[in-house]
Amino acid sequence: MQHQRGRIDLTGRDYTAIYALSDIHGSYDEMVAAERRIVEDARGLPGRKLLMYLGDYVDRGPRSSDVLAHLCAPPPEGFDRYALCGNHDDAFLRFLDDPDANIHWLEFGALPTLLSYGIDARHVLFDLGYSIGELRDLTLKAMPPAHVDLLRSLAVAVTLGSTLFVHAGIQPGVGLGEQTDEDLMWIREPFLSEGPQLPLLVIHGHTPGSHPVFGLSRIGIDTAVSMGGTLTILKIANGRQMILPPI
């Protein structure tokens, strides 16, 4: 059984700007371009900046391994960077820990993730006749240990004053200490309709749309980059939230 993931409180930290992006899904080139855009926007701002990644680094897109490698490397100069766990990242790790019980991950956008490590899962399973356990073993052999360590270390929430960053959302009206990891990584309704029902602004991804959603005490920024959309960058500075226009 997996341990509960961490929840990080940054309240009291002083950041001149916060930038958030979510649901990379193997879209490495778009992620790197977004980080360059963020660094350019922050040029000239004094003090530390915060870069928040809201989860779902793997599956669907072609370069999941490169995305994880990027998140293992240091953040841009002048930035603190925190990466939260998405439901896809958690499903990948669960497959690595117990492949037989988590075989459904293979139908969850996983094949491009495995391919990014040089593993053609269909060939391995159907042509070579490997078992699910043997596929997992091949995957672990192909993955840098730092990538597994990263997946294991990802927190599920970051709080900064009255702003909460999570992958999916929260159960409305329920204190953060009572929220399960599953709530924070998977919820849609009733959160999307009702908002947090707490004195919080929740910044989240998970539910894709054609544009960012400024809802009831929540901002959803998953704009489906791996499915032909864009990678939205939310900027918070001077008490205001805005979407950063692309270069």
From TrEMBL:
<dbReference type="GO" id="GO:0005737">
    <property type="term" value="C:cytoplasm"/>
</dbReference>
<protein>
    <submittedName>
        <fullName>Serine/threonine protein phosphatase 1</fullName>
    </submittedName>
</protein>
<feature type="domain" description="Calcineurin-like phosphoesterase">
    <location>
        <begin position="18"/>
        <end position="208"/>
    </location>
</feature>
<dbReference type="InterPro" id="IPR050126">
    <property type="entry name" value="Ap4A_hydrolase"/>
</dbReference>
<dbReference type="GO" id="GO:0008803">
    <property type="term" value="F:bis(5'-nucleosyl)-tetraphosphatase (symmetrical) activity"/>
</dbReference>
<dbReference type="InterPro" id="IPR029052">
    <property type="entry name" value="Metallo-depent_PP-like"/>
</dbReference>
<dbReference type="InterPro" id="IPR004843">
    <property type="entry name" value="Calcineurin-like_PHP"/>
</dbReference>
<dbReference type="Pfam" id="PF00149">
    <property type="entry name" value="Metallophos"/>
</dbReference>
<dbReference type="GO" id="GO:0016791">
    <property type="term" value="F:phosphatase activity"/>
</dbReference>
<dbReference type="GO" id="GO:0110154">
    <property type="term" value="P:RNA decapping"/>
</dbReference>
